[in-house]
Amino acid sequence: MASEERFHGGHFPKHIVLQAVFWYLRYSLSYRDIEELMEERGVEVDHATVQRWVVKYTPILEAEFRKRKKTVGTSWRMDETYIKVKGQWQYLYRAVDKEGNTIDFLLTKKRDKKAAKRFVIKAINHNGFPEKITIDGSAANKAAIEEFNSDNDTAIEIRQVKYLNNIVEQDHRSIKRITNSMLGFKSFHSASITLNGIELVHMLRKRQLQSQDNSVKKLADIFYSLAA
User: Fold this and answer.
1) Which residue ranges form the domains of the chain, and what is each CATH number?
2) DSSP 8-class letter at 7
3) Other Cβ atoms closer than 10 A to 37
4) pLDDT tens, 150-203?
5) Strand partners for 69
6) In 3-state terms, what secondary structure has residue 71?
7) In the chain, where does DSSP find H-type helix?
């Protein structure tokens, strides 16, 4: 599990750090909102410090989750949505299986065959090969999967049936609900890390963590367990 030492050495105890990070990734709150909530609980922490915690500790927690993520299905739904970074629209590639479980995600600066192929490679490296991938009418996504098949001598079936992609399109809403309150990210680096954290909490809500203690009902406690 994530090492205890990774959370030591700071001015604040680990449980305060994790609570602030969880609040930001789970709810539609700004860093200043969290600063105010902490102050109401007798903890004085600057909003910039909370931002540093999110950027520093989210990758540690995500890495621990990746080790314990449940296996996903082999019928994927792939799509992309828009995320504003530094005033410019960027693209968040996402995929879920037919049960709605999150497969993977990737923030990119462009929406083209190269970006789509990067996402496909990342998703397969983390989750294994799918039997089929359903996409909408995107020519770039279709070309990316076809090129992957050609490069790797695989035969992933490509289905272009828009209504079957409703699952992933609806799933975007849970991510956008959180990001819409953030009024745009200031850098691509922090946007990518923060989105990974939002996706992490979303997967925990879907109970995609292996060996999860069923007696633990609160989402926050499940999140904290990644740093146990």
Assistant:
1) 4-68+209-225 (no CATH), 75-179 (3.30.420.10)
2) G
3) 16
4) 999 999 999 998 777 788 989 999 998 898 877 678 899 999 999 999 999 999
5) 209
6) coil
7) 14-26, 31-40, 47-67, 113-127, 139-152, 166-179, 188-205, 219-225
